[in-house]
Amino acid sequence: MSADAPLLIVEDLTVSFRSDEGLVRAVGGVSFTVEQREIVGVVGESGSGKSQTLLAIMGLVDSPNAIVSGSIRFMGQELIGLNRRALDAIRGRQIAMIFQDPMSALTPVHTIGNQIGEQVRAHEKVSAKAARARAVELLDAVGIANPERVVDGYPHQLSGGMRQRAVIAMALSCNPALLVADEPTTALDVTVQAQILELIGRLRDEFGSAVILVTHDLGVVAEVADRVLVMYGGRFVEQGGKNSVFRTPLHPYTWGLFGSIPPMEGERPARLAAIPGAPPSLSNLPKGCAFGPRCAFRHDACLVQLPVMHGDGHRAACVLPETRRNQFTVRKAAGGEMQR
Amino acid sequence: MNALPRERPLLRAGDLSKHYHVGRSVFPAQRRTVHAVDTVSLDIWPGETLGIVGESGCGKSTLARCLVRLTNITSGSLEFEGRDIADASQRQLRPLRRQMQMVFQDPSASLNPRRRVGDLLADPFRIHERLSASEMADRVAELLRRVELSPEHASRYPHEFSGGQRQRIGIARALALRPRLIVADEPVSALDVSIQAQIVNLLADLREEFNLTYVFIAHDLSVVRQISTRVAVMYLGSIVESGPTDLVFATPAHHYTAALRSAVPIPCVDRARRSRQVLKGDLPSPMNPPSGCRFHTRCPASTSICRNERPLLQSIGDGRLVACHHPGGG
Question: What was the ipTM of the complex prediction?
């Protein structure tokens, strides 16, 4: 693999579940790449398929009723269809994952040091003593104040923010090329969230890891990501470099998301430019654009035909002509509300 | 019609405290007390929306429950329209329940899953008003319409609704008896961003239409800023700063307010990057709060006086109250 080839190439990934209501399509054919040392933010609301996309990358969609298809190539190796043993050699070592709730990744009955050490020894032949020393080092690296003491402590003795640090330390234990994080700061208070976000930024700088960060919070994305993917109804509706997406969002859903967030400074709008309606049910997705029924700009074509994303760089899956979008961008700059 | 007298607050709390005992040990030395709410004084004026912000464990939800007397208070005074309700029994409180209602964070937990939405919404009328079945149905239909649901929804069960719709039902129920005060505890925290905005707008509309007074509790600063006319910031059971919303957010006087505000990630890539104050460490345990100013262990401006002497909540002249020895954090 050449040095500048993408670390991860996902092509036409689909995750569906057989259910009583028929086939529920959680992820509907997504394609994206993650470059080395890149932080990619995936934004979406609940049910948008963002977590399922991550789980598919980790090979963790293991329900007997799940159907995963498409291609996930990591450092040139196809992950879909790989057997458990081969996956285990990659998971935890080259790709690590952190979850929203750190307790879901920690067992309450072992010390933090044991749990990190176990992870180290699963992938490397080192002595228990060396593994423990490594655990102390890692806890120190993620900013835990007294690693020597914490290493012998149990998860319940730590605060939420400390636990998330310990989980990140565990994820880093084998120096993964890719860290996959599912809402890592959602359960934390804002002051602690700020600490964890700073840490994720440092991971790339100091450990050279690429990160896929799934979140519902556009503020978090603005803070740490290089590139943004916006997900809705199991598909990407917009993707591009962070600056471009935040300055000139192209998709009406992205506009709606920005309009829904109350500003932290400046004038307070009398009303928020909320998106009407609710996200679609995945078992009963609209035929055309999934956002169509809620979109203030829809026309007949949107309800019939699925819009496709064209080109490279910053792009959106929307049939709206560019002139119409530019009008919105100007209004947004003037602080106007989103209206038809 | 005369102008409403402004001099009397709707709700007034004076040195309100709520303590919980933990560890029921026979050894007194192992019994401990959590000062969940610690000498909080608050006036809530008719027509205002008081936002209460703070991180988890700061006592904001306990305070909410104390204010509407869903829980007994340990000490202090509490008056609703001049009536002392600090020690009122649940029976004595019942007529007042028409006047003050609560909206909870998790609407699924606050709606009985076995009852139809129409029945749930009719309960307040059954308890407080004598209405015929058809009058009741009309009132329920009207309520549903007011929260932008449809009257047909009355025959459905809570699980048939989405999170946002369930919160609308929770709001409708609080609204049923036309209360004067609604205390909303994290009403939008469990909702997706786009739905959150709808509910914030709905609450603002209802406030206009029914002349409501809100106490709005949330950990999300941007939501609190959007809806509140006044804000109180809590840390470890006490209010550290309160004042008009725009002032508190633009020029925080307490260092904790400043740190809290600067920690909120802003969804914008073009603003001059404010030098972020990342607070060190975690929230101290409320069972064993620090001496003096409770924030001194994490405060960038703390001096020896902060370690020894607890600052009082004092006016700094612009409509704000601040509990800090060295105000001017922003």
Answer: 0.85
